[in-house]
């Protein structure tokens, strides 16, 4: 699994294309041209053998095999003897997964030490990548220890939390840059106007309305990119550990108190309130799903002053879905009850699951096909109703 992904990472990091296709391409007559362009960087040997040669990234290598291979191949540059170089790990030097490797000449005793990972401002790259990857698959320190011990790797970084913070900070910075850029792009696509239309949507970590964590996103309708996001959480581990005895206000992560159902409202308000300062735009149109509490609260807060009117758009998909939802609920509520004609609501030629799907489709089409004409839209929507109501004996007329 990781192999392809890391291959990509490596390629993007180095600009070298060592993929199979590049190797094949390089055997074409125009391969020289590609080499000139620097698009393909391969040694002559690779061209002859067609071998893939990877020059960057991480590998899991058995240190014993590495040592044997080097010993059998190289000559000591100090004493010129052969079969004398061992590769050892200086195990006192371990910093998480990073360590220092030593090339030692058994003959003359000369040594060369080098690190197993590049170093960044925030520690060894391999440790940052490791913690980041564990967080990406939703695992923490305990799972890391198991993974490393089974793979016979050094112990994972002990300061897991510290590294997580570094990664969180970096990701946060990158995310903000991207969102600021997306907002600028939306302005361009909106003919330069900084009053842009957004879709607001809230999503919860868990289904239902009992979730502790939620995220509310604002997506530009002009370019479909996320321009702002608010994460809300009702849970703080610190509060639980200290049982609220110690005041830890300064690093408390809890930022929301209230029913999970109102998270979207809170997120929407925050997004609107900071839009001018942080994104340089005003959100003039609010596209929301069926729940209009968020919109209502935003309007009440008047984020852009007394006179600025924020428009509400309904997402047609959601409006359409509501027709189906209501009909399905009706069938459920009427279960077992006899209607005026003595029959139940469901069954053959009655309000079946398929019939509901069809009614929902007609309803959506009635709106969609008459976007510019409200009267035609009304007629088209009601047409389905009268069509269904109508029988040969009792023709229904709108
Ligand atoms: Zn030597
Ligand atoms: Zn707390």
From TrEMBL:
List, for all copies, the residue spans of the domain called Mutator-like transposase: 57-385
The record lists the organism as Periplaneta americana
- Taxonomic lineage per UniProt? Eukaryota, Metazoa, Ecdysozoa, Arthropoda, Hexapoda
PANTHER family hit by this protein: SI:CH211-108C17.2-RELATED-RELATED
Where does this protein have compositionally biased stretches of type Polar residues?
A: 11-21
Judging by the UniProt lineage, the source's domain of life is: Eukaryota
Tell me the protein's name: Mutator-like transposase domain-containing protein
Q: Where is this region: Disordered?
A: 1-27
